């Protein structure tokens, strides 16, 4: 009964991971489009896209951490698993037990990352003063759009002033979300085992269909 309930919860967690992966793919497509626009405008019109470096940095962080949970789900997180693969082939029970131990360690590491990043996210988000009156600057006017743009200008940001600036909190939120969801998936792998029928690409399996 408990296992059945955990598997139902896991299915919802997996669904969110897939949606996050698709979102990361859309960010990647947008990045490719921006890079192509920069190349064309730079070579044909001698007018490079201003802030392309900042866009790349911002997008890469979003792509990596939005797609991290689905990478964990499918078992394609980069690792050296030659010994583990042999052990699971010749001693399945011992191999499965060791896999669960490693997933449990990965769960702890992901939790540590979330514990480290979350205060940074809250600090950068609170610097915008979306819901609280700012200590300095113009007070709220009551116009939601005007107040929102004013708050964005107060945010802790990265980039180059006058070229492109973006608030830090969306990136830190993506990092916290990606690591938290990866931790949840590692937790289910530790408790329930790896239910995904996946094979890692190794020297032994790279030529198999």
Our measurement of the CA-to-CA distance between the termini, rounded to an integer number of angstroms, reads 37 Å
Major sheet description: 2 strands, antiparallel
Which shape, going by the Cα principal axes?
globular
Number of domains: 1
- Which strand order does the major sheet show? 1-2
- DSSP helical segment count: 6
Beta strands, count: 2
Overall structural class, as computed from helix and strand content, comes to mainly alpha
Question: Radius of gyration, rounded?
Answer: 22 Å
What's the pLDDT, averaged over the residues?
A: 81
State the order of secondary-structure elements, H for helix, E for strand: HHHHHEEH
Oligomeric form: single chain
What share of residues is helical?
Answer: 55-70%
Beta-strand percentage?
under 5%
- Low-confidence segments, given as residue ranges, are 197-209
């Amino acid at each position: 009964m408990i296992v059945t309930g955990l598997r139902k919860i896991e299915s919802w967690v997996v669904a969110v991971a897939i949606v996050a992966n698709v979102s990361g793919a859309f960010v990647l497509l947008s990045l490719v489009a921006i890079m192509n626009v920069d190349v064309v405008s730079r070579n044909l019109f001698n007018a490079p896209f201003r802030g392309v470096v900042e866009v790349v940095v911002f997008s890469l962080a979003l792509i990596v951490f939005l797609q991290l949970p689905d990478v964990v789900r499918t078992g394609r997180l980069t690792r050296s698993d030659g010994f583990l693969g042999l052990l699971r082939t010749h001693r399945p029970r011992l191999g499965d037990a060791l896999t669960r131990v490693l997933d449990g360690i990965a769960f702890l590491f992901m939790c540590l990352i979330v514990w480290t990043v979350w205060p940074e996210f809250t600090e950068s988000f609170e610097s915008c003063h979306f819901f609280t009156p700012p200590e300095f600057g113009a007070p709220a006017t009551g116009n939601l759009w005007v107040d929102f743009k004013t708050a964005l200008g107060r945010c802790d940001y990265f980039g180059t002033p006058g070229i492109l600036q973006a608030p830090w909190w969306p990136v830190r939120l993506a990092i916290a979300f990606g690591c938290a969801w990866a931790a949840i998936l590692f937790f289910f792998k530790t408790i329930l085992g790896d239910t995904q029928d996946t094979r890692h690409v190794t020297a032994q399996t790279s030529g198999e269909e």
